[in-house]
Amino acid sequence: MSLCYEESDRKRKCVPLNNSAKKVCFNEKVDTRSTPSNSKEFTMANFPAHMFHIGELIFISVNTFQKQTRVHIRVYATDDRGILHPTKNGVSLKPEVWCALHNIVSVSIQRLFQRKDSSFQFVRERVLLNGENLDQLRDSYERVLKCVKNKLLTYTLSEYVVAEVDRLPEIDSLYYDVDSPHGLHELFDSLCKCLTKYVSNNISLFVKLDCAVCQDDFILPKIHECMNVSKRDCFDMYFERALYNIDWKTLAVDFVNLNKNRPYIKFFRNDMFDLMEIENVFKKVEDMYVNEYTLDLLPSL
Fold this sequence. Notes:
Layout: E1 51-53, E2 58-65, E3 68-78, E4 84-93, H1 95-98, E5 107-109, E6 112-114, E7 120-122, E8 127-129, H2 132-139, H3 141-165, H4 182-209, H5 212-215, H6 231-244, H7 248-259, H8 264-267, H9 272-275, H10 278-290
Antiparallel strand pairs: 1-2, 2-3, 3-4, 5-8, 6-7
């Protein structure tokens, strides 16, 4: 038996890509009147809480994308209606890079471009910060830090936690009294313990890295600088650095495993971090670390 396949004269149609989800970076030459009417528009007199003006048309903003939290320093342009639009003159920084800027006298932000022949070249500067810009950057530092800490939990950690909760087996009989905050309090305490453990481990690592004696492999404990630093001083010096170097995916796995037998972790799956007071989370982490709260009951993280 022979089979004969007829060639179809029907052509496959190319479905256009949905570009609505793409982030568009405008420059001064873009016709901003083509911006969709339902987009979020803002002016110099009214801009979002995650944006901070540091002079002229330069803004610092804390944005999130693909489970990452970034600090943007960018020049904006205004259209005929006074609406602000981001230009290509800017840069996206990891929080640990951004936090180093407030102690610098002058900042010229450039990009390192890799050529096709694998050589590298700096492109022209994207943003130049000096004088008033740096003064405003320093003045806004604590507000930006607060926003970064908030996004690291409510977005970055939350995205990883949701993915881990979805892997948990379904519970046949899920009953939770929504009028009782008990479950959320337990999740709050559990998060503080996990976060304190990770912060503590990172601080210990950075303290030893900065100890000249530890790096030289000396074993005389009395002369180790790292052993004479109080918990209070360690936290003040290394907390931000420790926070920015947390492996959030691993922390999410440990947090979910610690609460996998608590049915309300599924109930609060999407909004547990939004319901928590994030500032209270970090205050408790600080208190637990400085007062050497025992974390021995936690599994090895």
